[in-house]
Write a structure and sequence with these properties.
Blueprint lengths: L1 H11 L5 E5 L7 E6 L5 E6 L3 H16 L7 E4 L5 E5 L6 H4 L1 H5 L6 H20 L17 H16 L8 H15 L7 E2 L8 E3 L5 E3 L6 E2 L3 H8 L8 H15 L8 H29 L3 H18 L9 H11 L47 E8 L14 E5 L20 H10 L1 H23 L3 E8 L5 H17 L2 E6 L4 E5 L19
Parallel strand pairs: 10-12, 10-13, 11-12
Antiparallel strand pairs: 1-2, 2-3, 3-5, 4-5, 6-9, 7-8, 13-14
Helix pairs in contact: 5-9, 6-7, 6-10, 7-12, 8-10, 10-11, 11-12, 14-15
Length: 529
């Protein structure tokens, strides 16, 4: 404390006449309101992490240069563990909307206006704040990535799920976690991810203008995260209509800062982050409540579980993680989460183990292990045409995954003299096959199967998939099918495709496009805006 008062003296030329410690919730930092002889106040901060303090100071100074509504840094100690910032007053958004929260989510007009003003301002710090920002100054890492997602999902697993004593298959859950993480990080983003954007971290001036604080954990990342964090804050109890209205306000405000995705795509991406944020919050409540014994966090669990129950009512296609979703349904059904006044019972020796089967396998789960091809790089699809007389092509990747299709049930142009010297790449053969139509019906079924398989392989991070088409001579029907499937997959998913017409000694590589997500990102969202 002595070093903080000395820093104040260096700034003001005198010692403060009064120092009042401010209450904190989940932070390890200590905050003090320091009053000078002129009655002016500032906020003194004592931190426990030099890196975290430096991140806040850098971000606050950067945002101030961008003329964003954040506290100004007035002084920083030599050891970087203490700093003084401007005083934004006593009224947080959380306190200002207390009436609506205590009324069970029935917010009046003034409270709704405060929420709207805040949500409209969020894209300002996310988009304008990101411009010129040196991400390496962020703490504890510069960017939202797969590793950080898995860290938070395991935080949920170890601090909330295991103490609940729910039986679950850890490898299957981990496999679904990895799928979930890949989907959350599938899109590049140049925006500032606030990370802890909630009503407690928004201060209001006398005119109700919002100012942002506690952004020291921010990093480069998707803006959906902050919107989910704010609107699904467990204690807020925002109604469905209010959430929908605030999402619309945010979406329209976002348009002022650049191009925006379609409403459908925006809603689909947001839904993923709502689920992720809900699990992350439960992990934090478990740690702060059950292990650190802080009652506020224990009391917050029932409402967070209500948010999770609402998510579980949505179309299962929104969240293609069958085992994880089944586990979450069983979690919300546990007796200790059925009523507000029944806290979770913990066991010091971990969670209960049982020999009984606790989950029926789902075809989308995959094996209860990890393929050596998971997460090693982008998917490469190999498509072959071949003659059954010379055998089925070998898979050089060693993966062994894929399909072999027999084209010999379709009409063979090779039986007719005009086509005997041609292949399935030549226009006369193509016209013959398509006019006949049998090959098109055959490929319709192949496309449906291939599309689903490629989409799931992209989601799971697999690197190799093979399709092979065989016919009598490997010259007409198989060549046509292999060429058309390869071009179809490349066009739809953007993945790298190798087309090999083995008997014709023709090889072709279709290079990957910038985005190779295909229909995986076209799942419908649940938030109409």
């Amino acid at each position: 404390m002595e070093k903080l008062t000395d820093l104040y003296r260096q700034l003001k030329g005198e010692l403060p006449v009064a120092i009042d410690k401010l209450p904190v919730a989940g932070s390890n930092r200590s905050y003090f309101r320091m009053t000078g002889s002129d009655g002016q106040t500032v906020i003194g901060v004592i931190g426990t992490s030099r890196d975290e303090d430096q991140a806040f100071v850098y971000l606050a100074q950067h945002f101030t240069k961008r003329q964003l509504p954040v506290p100004r840094i007035l002084a920083v100690s030599e050891d970087k563990l203490r700093y003084i910032q401007s005083d934004l007053g006593n009224l947080s958004l959380y306190d200002a909307i207390k009436g609506g929260r205590e009324a069970g989510g029935r917010y009046n007009r003034k409270e709704r206006e405060l929420l709207i003003n805040t949500i409209r301002e969020l894209p300002n710090i996310q988009i304008r704040g990101a411009r010129g920002l040196d991400w390496k100054n962020c703490y504890p890492q510069p960017e939202f990535n797969t590793e950080s997602v898995l860290f938070d999902l395991n935080y949920f697993k170890y601090c909330f799920l295991k103490p609940s004593e729910l039986d679950f298959h850890e490898l299957k859950l981990e496999a679904n976690f990895r799928l979930f993480a890949k989907d959350l990080t599938a899109e590049e983003s140049d925006s500032f991810l606030y990370r802890d954007f909630q009503a407690r971290n928004v201060m209001l001036d006398a005119n109700g203008k919002p100012y942002f604080i506690d952004f020291q954990g921010g990093r480069k990342g998707p803006y959906y995260y902050d919107l989910a964090s704010f609107l699904w804050q467990a204690s807020a109890q925002y109604s469905y209509k209010l959430r929908r209205d605030l999402i619309a306000e945010y979406y329209n405000s976002l348009k002022n800062y650049g191009e925006v995705p379609s409403v459908r795509h925006f809603a689909s991406r947001l839904s993923l982050f709502v689920l992720f944020r809900t699990l992350q919050v439960l992990g934090a409540y478990g740690f702060r409540g059950y292990f650190e014994r802080k009652q506020y966090f224990v009391d917050s669990i029932p409402r967070a579980m209500d948010n999770l129950r609402d998510l579980l009512q949505l179309d299962s296609n929104i969240f293609p993680y069958p085992y994880m979703m089944d586990m979450l349904r069983r979690l919300t059904a546990l007796p200790q989460f059925a009523h507000v006044d029944q806290p979770v019972a913990m066991r010091a020796d971990g969670y209960k183990v049982t020999d009984r089967p606790i989950y029926q396998a789902h075809p989308q789960d995959g094996p209860a292990t990890f393929s050596k091809y998971d997460g090693k790089g982008p998917l490469v699809v190999s498509v072959y045409s071949f003659s059954y007389r010379k055998g089925i092509p070998e898979d050089p990747s060693g993966n062994g995954g894929g399909y072999v299709f027999d084209c010999r049930s379709t009409h063979n142009p090779g039986r007719y003299e005009p086509y005997k010297q041609l292949t399935g790449l030549d226009e006369p053969v193509i016209r013959f096959l398509e006019d006949d139509g049998e090959i098109l019906t055959f490929l319709e079924s192949v496309y449906r199967l291939a599309d689903h398989h490629v989409n799931r392989y992209i989601q799971r991070g697999f690197t190799s998939l093979v399709f092979a088409f065989g016919c009598t001579g490997g010259q007409h029907r198989s060549v046509y099918c292999a060429q058309h499937l390869g071009e179809h997959l490349h066009e739809k998913f953007g993945v790298e495709v190798h087309i090999t017409h083995r008997e014709q000694q023709i090889d072709q590589v279709l290079p990957p496009k910038e985005s190779a997500r295909g229909s995986a990102d076209e799942q419908g969202g649940f938030l109409a805006i």
